[in-house]
Design a protein that fits this description.
globular, serine/threonine-protein kinase, two-stranded antiparallel ribbon, five-stranded antiparallel sheet, RIO-type_Ser/Thr_kinase, Phosphorylase Kinase, domain 1, 8 helices, 2 domains, non-specific serine/threonine protein kinase, 255 residues
């Protein structure tokens, strides 16, 4: 056994031991996501000064877990870890094929996941540069993405829109539609999975998240995805009392 790898694993496991995770469910998830390669990746990130402590779960998805990280200067981070074994590779292939930015052997599962994570990093960066409110991406490496933490100073994450109705639904709706328009015309992207589950209500500011599946506007499926995003947003905001037609929203976005 390589002694350097062994020492790195011990150091990282010591860092990970500071997580305040107490439930059986969280412990089982932890053992699932912290495989050998992920441990090495996290160790390199920690050793490079990007991360100091992992401190519990923010959210758990089908393919990835988002954990709360703490930088050495004390500010919070969001650490998204994609699970290699449980990722939906067919879905990843569907979204990544046809994107000219990525040339990857889609039969190689680990390579595909790494490209998927890098895709989310680049989509977030592109969106941020276009003036869209998204978490600032900090670094992407292998199956780990470190981003800006969206929440309060005490480390409480902002709730998703589905769980926190906006005080002014009309204003929130217009904000989301404006973000979709900027995304399309300035970032040249379509989100592809936009709904109340992928929007945070951060003190009434609508923050777009989960952009791994987002595609460039000249991608063969971009228009199909845009139509679906519009339907999802209309349906979600209808629950808050906002009424809008598909054609009306589409016209606002496409101009």
């Amino acid at each position: 056994m390589d002694p350097k790898v062994s020492r790195a694993d011990r150091d990282l496991r010591k860092m990970l031991s500071e997580k305040r995770i107490k439930s059986v469910e969280d412990r089982s998830v932890g053992s699932e996501i912290f495989d050998q390669q992920t441990l090495k990746t996290l160790y390199k990130m920690a050793n490079s000064g990007y991360l100091n402590i992992l401190n519990g779960a923010i959210s758990t998805g089908k393919e990835a877990n988002v954990l709360k990280g703490i930088h050495e200067d004390g500010h919070f981070l969001a650490v998204k870890i994609y699970r290699i074994n449980t990722s939906d590779f067919k879905k990843m292939q569907y979204y990544i094929q046809g994107d000219p930015r990525f040339k990857v052997r889609t039969t190689h599962k680990r390579q595909l996941v790494y490209a998927w994570v890098n895709k989310e990093y680049r989509n977030l960066k592109r969106s941020l540069e276009a003036g869209i409110v998204v978490p600032k991406p900090i670094i992407s490496q292998n199956n780990v993405l470190i981003m800006e933490f969206i929440g309060d100073d005490d480390g409480n994450p902002a709730p998703i829109l589905r769980n926190k109705a906006p005080e002014n639904p009309e204003k929130a709706f217009e904000s989301v539609v404006t973000s979709m328009k900027k995304l399309y015309h300035e970032a040249k992207l379509v989100h592809g999975d936009l709904s109340g589950f992928n929007i945070l209500n951060n003190n009434e500011e609508m923050v777009i998240i989960d952009m791994s599946q987002s595609v460039v506007v000249d991608h063969p499926i971009s228009r199909e995805l845009l139509e679906r995003d519009i339907d999802n947003i209309i349906l979600d905001f209808k629950k808050f009392g906002v009424s809008a037609s598909h054609e009306e929203v589409k016209q606002k976005i496409l101009g």
